[in-house]
């Protein structure tokens, strides 16, 4: 393992002062996989007082001191240095009840969640790997450190973390770990919602459909509204898959952008509840987009998702059944209403939705390249999408004698005519039209 210079210097300082020091956790795991770690954590036998003394000449972050963590601000990055410690259970599901500093790295590694995360490395002593994390990485196995039931009972967020690590590195939980993940999943109800939400946000951009299927018992525990979708036969000739499998495929297919992944995961959450059997013998799902939006709103509020993300997700779900047609006039209206980025996202969602039915390539899929081409053309034309893009403004209309709400009405009318290509967006043409329609201006 090669440590960056600034990390090596911190480690060396502690060693020189007589305190054993290791790189630990994610950075060791990622290095063994040949990946570049996104940060480096150190752990040491020094207690916070001693760490502070060793780095007395550097600015420090002391917010985590109670739990044994001192952040050292080097020129490059903050390096977190944590005293070897063990910890008690998490009664509040957030913080361990107690931490106790210890002097052996092995005791520190034993409190960590999975074997692949419970390795440390020192340039002096080499790899510390008392639980066989390296072997598990090679065999692609996710294994809890110690007795899985105990570890998930201490902190049930580890179940969701386990899903994330399994997905990120293509690991399969060993039988005992998986069994405990599934049987104890309901413990996650006690977790702080923000922790669950954050973990799901880390997971969603990484998942593919197979992951969502193999970990369905965990996913449907934190989003119980999806439970009835698992195995639900759509009884419709356009759909070969059950609702949950379809959802999983759509989620995999949309680009890994957070709002889009959330929208994909929840876009059909209202489907099962809106099922009806038609006289034609086909399952119908009238109003499922509206109901889905309502349910997604409740889910995202419960999980304390930020408002902006929630609004974006709800917008995409609301419109996921309103096909964007290859028609410039209509597209300009969509662009005016939702903006370019959201229209692009909606297109991704609709295309993934359409392409994930398992009944061959629907004819409608051919429309997507056309729509994209038209959007490109509209962009190049520098089109008039909003009232503010019109070549006249409210003052111009006031000068013509318009007042009050009539100004807005006239502007909207002008915008519509311009978008329908019945009127040119020039000052002269717009003023003439305003004047012409101005008979009822007050
Ligand atoms: P990432 O690349 O996502 O940062 P990471 O392994 O560094 O992965 P962190 O959440 O940053 O994960 O945690 C650092 C280390 O602390 C982990 O590798 C693990 O050893 C330990 N750890 C973190 N959270 C827990 C937990 N809830 N229970 C037990 N050990 C944990
Ligand atoms: Mg980390």
Could you report the average pLDDT, rounded to the nearest whole number?
94
- Describe the global form: globular
Beta-strand percentage range = 5-15%
Major sheet: order of its strands? 3-4-5-2-1-8-9
What is the number of helical segments per DSSP (H or I, 4+ residues)? 21
Largest sheet: 7 strands, mixed
Distance between the termini: 78 Å
Low-confidence stretches: none
Using only C-alpha atoms, the radius of gyration works out to 29 Å
List the ions, cofactors and other small molecules found in this model: adenosine-5'-triphosphate, magnesium ion
Number of strands: 13
User: What is the helix content?
Assistant: 40-55%
Structural class by sheet pairing and helices: alpha+beta
Explained architecture:
It is a single chain. This protein has helices at 5-16, 26-32, 48-54, 105-110, 133-139, 148-154, 157-169, 175-183, 193-203, 209-214, 216-222, 243-253, 258-266, 288-302, 307-318, 328-338, 340-355, 367-381, 394-399, 405-419, 427-437, and strands spanning 21-24, 41-44, 60-61, 69-73, 78-83, 85-87, 99-101, 120-122, 126-128, 141-142, 172-173, 276-277, 283-284. With 442 residues, it is α+β, with helices and mostly antiparallel strands. The chain is globular, with a radius of gyration of 29 Å. Residues 26, 39 line the site of magnesium ion.
């Amino acid at each position: 393992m090669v440590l960056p210079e600034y990390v090596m210097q911190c480690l060396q300082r502690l060693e020189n002062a007589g305190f054993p020091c290791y790189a630990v956790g994610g950075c060791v795991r990622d290095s063994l996989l040949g990946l570049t770690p996104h940060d480096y954590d150190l752990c040491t036998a020094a207690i916070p007082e001693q760490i502070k003394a060793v780095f007395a000449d550097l600015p420090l972050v002391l917010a985590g001191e109670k739990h044994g963590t001192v952040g050292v601000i080097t020129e490059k990055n903050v390096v977190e240095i944590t005293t070897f410690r063990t910890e008690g259970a998490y009664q509040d599901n957030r913080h361990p009840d107690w931490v106790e500093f210890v002097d052996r790295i092995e005791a520190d590694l034993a409190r960590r969640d999975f074997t692949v995360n419970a390795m440390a490395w020192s340039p002096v002593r080499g790899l510390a790997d008392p639980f066989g994390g390296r072997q598990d990485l090679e065999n692609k196995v996710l294994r809890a450190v110690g007795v899985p039931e105990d570890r998930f009972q201490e902190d049930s967020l580890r179940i969701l973390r386990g899903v994330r690590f399994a997905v990120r590195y293509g690991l399969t939980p060993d039988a005992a770990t998986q069994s405990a993940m599934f049987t104890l999943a309901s413990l996650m109800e006690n977790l702080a919602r923000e922790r669950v939400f954050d973990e799901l946000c880390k997971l969603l951009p990484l998942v593919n459909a197979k992951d969502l299927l193999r970990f369905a018992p965990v996913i449907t525990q934190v989003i119980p509204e999806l439970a009835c979708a698992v195995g639900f036969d759509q009884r419709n000739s356009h759909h070969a898959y059950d609702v949950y499998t379809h959802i999983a495929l759509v989620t995999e297919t949309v680009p890994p952008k957070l709002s889009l992944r959330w929208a994909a995961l929840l876009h059909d959450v209202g489907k099962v509840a809106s099922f009806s059997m038609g006289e034609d013998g086909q399952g119908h799902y009238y109003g499922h987009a509206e109901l889905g939006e309502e349910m997604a709103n409740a889910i995202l509020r419960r999980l304390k998702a930020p408002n902006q993300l929630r609004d974006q997700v709800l917008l995409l779900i609301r419109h996921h059944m309103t096909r964007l047609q290859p028609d410039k006039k209509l597209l300009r209206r969509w662009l005016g209403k939702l903006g370019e980025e959201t229209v692009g996202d909606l297109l991704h969602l609709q295309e993934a939705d359409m392409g994930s039915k398992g009944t061959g390539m629907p004819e409608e899929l051919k429309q997507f390249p056309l729509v994209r081409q038209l959007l490109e053309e509209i962009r190049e034309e520098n089109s008039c999408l909003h009232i503010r893009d019109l070549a006249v403004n409210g003052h111009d209309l006031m000068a013509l004698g318009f007042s009050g709400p009539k100004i807005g009405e006239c502007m909207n009318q002008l915008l519509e005519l311009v978008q329908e290509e019945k009127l040119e967006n020039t000052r002269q043409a717009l003023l003439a039209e305003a004047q012409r329609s101005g008979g009822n201006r007050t």
